[in-house]
Design a protein that fits this description.
Blueprint: E1 3-5, H1 7-17, H2 32-42, E2 45-46, H3 59-65, H4 71-78, E3 88-91, E4 95-98, H5 100-105, H6 113-125, H7 127-140, E5 143-144, H8 145-156, H9 159-162, H10 166-178, E6 183-187, E7 193-196, H11 204-208, H12 214-229, E8 231-232, H13 234-240, H14 245-257, E9 261-266, E10 269-276, E11 288-290, H15 301-308, E12 329-334, E13 337-347, E14 352-360, H16 368-383, E15 387-395, H17 399-408
Parallel strand pairs: 1-9, 14-15
Antiparallel strand pairs: 2-4, 3-4, 5-7, 6-7, 8-10, 9-10, 11-12, 12-13, 13-14
Helix pairs in contact: 6-7, 6-10, 7-10, 8-10, 12-13, 12-14, 13-14, 16-17
């Protein structure tokens, strides 16, 4: 019979596996070693252009490391000849940063129907553009799409002579990126990809290693997801890197047979579950963090509901009249529970972190407002903002307690 755990134990396993237990992290001065440890455990940092607080890939690190320097992540994604890149970009959960070895484990995806569709269409309709764009990146990269457009104009004289335009050139770059012919060397301050050839982006040791076949690669991805989650269903593990569930199930069976995963049951979470062999089962956790909408702990919404009892929607994709909790809504973790959610905005012009809504979850403890304000102040300090302010029309049942806690501090 599989081992039986309580729902509270499962939550604590998940919080600890995601490095959100403050007894194990949040160093006073995070270093590259701390960043690397976090990257190694999470396995993926989703990228998104929304900048209401900060870019999406920066926020999960703040939740785990506290007041870290984002320049560390910039160094990790750019690299130097002496220090190869620690992170590269590809389609993982969505557009994401992953380790170079994980990028190689995602190469099977480059030949998927989704990745081939645009590529094959462009080769049929715009073969010259496809060739010339790749040649330009090869000779002059790393280059943004705008820089490639400039060079196309210089080479062609008049763009219509060749029949290409900016849209087709950008599509060509994205098709080459999807198929692995070019990579993102880095993102610019305007959040544009700068494209280059894989041999100039991937570390030499990764380039020299054999590319894993699909079953081996999927098994690697599923194990990364299982280690990052600690405990989860096949759907949880499949969603982490958007791997087909059937492939995930096969990988889980192999990992269980090899003792990497253990089949367990959880009272109150009535689905087939597996536990990673490295997962800790803490008696308590000291979690306290604001979780961005793209944080790995909240990736899979059904998991979030079944494990933490939160029915969560981000808000940014919902018409304003239909939003229940705000626009850019962050769940608030305290201990091993999600006890509140807040809609936040960085008002950089006035140096303030604005609290637009603040809602308590059912059975939130009495200290929720004070703990939330303490975490808001930590986030404001990390963002370089001088103060935390409730908006004049702040909504939510925590609005008054949060306002009092801010006034008392």
């Amino acid at each position: 019979m599989p081992r039986t755990l309580t729902l509270g134990q499962a939550r604590r396993i998940a919080v600890a596996a995601q490095l959100l237990d403050r007894s194990t992290l949040r160093p006073p001065r995070p270093t590259m070693a701390h960043l690397q440890r976090t990257i190694d455990r999470l396995g993926v940092l989703q990228i998104d252009s929304v900048n209401v607080l900060a870019r999406a890939h920066l926020l999960p690190l703040q939740a785990r490391l506290g007041n870290y320097d984002p320049a560390l992540l910039d160094r990790a994604t750019r690299g130097t000849p002496a220090r190869p890149r620690r992170l590269v970009e590809y389609w993982a959960h969505e557009a994401s940063y992953v380790s170079p070895s994980t990028y190689q484990a995602l190469r099977w995806r480059m030949d998927s129907p989704r990745m081939r569709r645009l590529d094959e269409q462009l080769w049929r309709e715009h073969p010259e553009t496809m060739v010339v764009v790749l040649d330009i990146v090869g000779s002059d990269g790393p280059l943004t799409a705008a820089q490639v457009h400039e060079r196309l104009g210089h080479q062609s004289g008049r763009r219509e002579h060749w029949g290409w335009n900016w849209t087709v050139a950008k599509q060509a770059l994205e098709a080459h990126f999807a198929r692995g012919r070019v990579m993102a060397a880095h993102r610019t301050t305007q959040f544009e990809r700068a494209y280059d050839l894989p041999e100039r982006v991937l570390p030499p040791a990764v380039l020299a290693a054999p590319v894993p076949d699909r079953p081996t690669a999927v098994r690697t991805l599923v194990e990364i997801a299982a280690r990052a989650h600690g405990i989860g269903t096949a759907r949880c593990l499949a969603d982490y890197f958007r791997v087909p569930v059937a492939d995930t199930q096969r990988a889980i069976s192999e990992l269980v047979a090899d003792g990497v995963l253990e089949e367990v049951s959880v009272r109150g979470w009535e689905r087939s579950l597996v536990l990673h062999r490295e997962a800790r089962v803490p008696r308590r956790t000291r979690g306290r963090a604001l979780l961005a909408p793209f944080d790995p702990l909240v990736f899979e919404r059904r998991r979030l509901l079944e494990l933490f009892g939160m029915h969560y929607r981000i808000g940014i994709y919902t018409p304003a009249a239909e939003r229940t909790h705000g626009y850019y809504v962050l769940p608030f973790l305290l201990g091993d529970r999600l006890v509140a959610r807040v809609d936040l905005k960085a008002d950089r012009e006035h140096g303030a972190l604005l609290v637009r809504t603040a809602f308590a979850e059912p059975e939130a403890p009495g200290e929720t407002a004070e703990e939330l304000v303490a975490e808001l102040r930590e986030m404001a300090a990390w963002l370089g903002l001088d103060q935390v302010l409730p908006e004049e029309d702040i909504r939510g049942d925590l609005a008054v307690p949060v306002g009092r806690a801010l006034a008392a501090a």
